[in-house]
Amino acid sequence: MPFCSKCGFVVADGVAFCQKCGTPIGATAGGPIATPVAVAPAASGLSENVASLLCYVVGWITGIIFLIIDKRPTVRFHAAQSIVVFGVLHILRIIITFGFLGTWRYGYGAIGFWSLWGLVSLALTVVTLILWIVLMVTAFQGKRVEIPVAAGIAKSMAGSGQ
User: Fold this and answer.
1) Per residue in 1-36, is it b (16+ CB within 10 Å) or e — as a string?
2) pLDDT tens-digit profile of 56-77?
3) In this predicted structure, what is the pLDDT of residue 37?
4) Among 89, 70, 77, which Cα is nearest to 138's?
5) In this predicted structure, what is the pLDDT of residue 114?
6) Residue 134 CB coordination number (10 Å)
7) 73-105 and 148-158 are packed helices; what angle lies between their axes, rounded to 10 degrees?
8) From the CA atom positions of the chain, what is the Rg in Å?
9) Beta bridge mates, 10
C-alpha cells in the first residue's frame, strides 16, 4: 500500500489523492493531475469504529453527545443503544435505591435490608459491567450486538431503518 509523501497516511491502491491531506499520490512533474474528490470527514473526526466505541465509554452521557454530533448511521445506532441501555440501568439503580431506603425507613430490619440491597446492587453492577465491556469491544470490532428491547428503541431514536 502506498503512503502519502506529505503526511504519511496509508492510501489505497489506485487512489489519486490522499484522503487525509489531499496531496496527489504518485504525481510526477509534468504528469496529468486529476481533480481531487471531496471526501466528507466525519463530524467528530474519528473513524467509525472508534466513534462507536466512545458512544459507550461514559454510558448514556457519551451516547447523547455522539447522537447529537455524529450523523453516520452505525454510530447513531450505538449512541442511541447506549442511551437506552445505560439510561435504563441508571434509572433502575435509582429506583432500587429509593425503594430499599423506603422499606428500611418503615422498619423492616436493617440487617436484611443491607444484605438484600447489597445483593441486588451487586447483580445490577455485574450486569452493567458485562454489558459495558461487551458493547464497547464489539462496537470497536465493527460488529453490532443488539440488546433485545433496547435495539428496537435505539433504531427508532437513531432514525435509521437498519
Assistant:
1) eeebeeeeeebeeeeebbbeeeebbeeeeeeeeeee
2) 999 999 999 999 998 899 999 9
3) 40
4) 77
5) 64
6) 13
7) 130
8) 24
9) 3
